[in-house]
Amino acid sequence: MSNQPVALVVDDDSNIIAAFEQFFKKEQCILTTATNIDDALQLFRERRVDLLITDIKLEGKSGVTLFIEARASNPDLRVIVITGYPDLITESEIKLFGADFFFLKPLDLDELRSAVRECLKNRQS
């Protein structure tokens, strides 16, 4: 098994998933993806995940629900929340739930890269 950190991106927009696949080609990280919460939670049961990047607005449930459930089994999980709907929740609210970073779409790739690297440093174990 690889010692590289593992990131899980959850978004129901295939274009966003494809953009993250391109983005992570330059990072020393294994990327896995899901388009819904049920598939994402199944991935958490199957493998170690070091970083969760999730959209807030997902079919059926909120991305907040996802990361709260995922953190219940992995308290060290780092979380980046993204949204195209800034009226749904604020950065201060999302951080109260325990997210490490919060970004609005369209994403600033330099800021995102910095956040990903911050979340994954010292995670290669």
Task: Write up this protein.
This protein is an alpha/beta fold and 125 residues long. The protein has one domain (6-120): Rossmann fold, CATH 3.40.50. Helix content is 40%, strand content 20%. It contains five helices and five strands. A five-stranded parallel beta sheet has the order 2-1-3-4-5, sandwiched between helices. The mean pLDDT is 92.
Distance from first to last alpha carbon: 11 Å
Query: What spatial order of strands do you see in the largest sheet?
Result: 2-1-3-4-5
Poorly predicted segments = none
CATH 2nd-level architecture: 3-Layer(aba) Sandwich
Q: What is the molecular shape?
A: globular
How many domains comprise the coordinates?
A: 1
Structural class: alpha/beta
Mean pLDDT: 92
Report the sheet with the most strands, covering strand number, pairing sense and barrel closure.
Answer: 5 strands, parallel
* CATH fold annotation: Rossmann fold
| CATH superfamily label | Response regulator
Strand proportion = 15-25%
How many individual helices? 5
Computed over alpha carbons, the radius of gyration is: 13 Å
Percent helix among the residues?
40-55%
SSE topology string: EHEHEHEHEH
Strand elements, count: 5
For the record, the CATH class is Alpha Beta
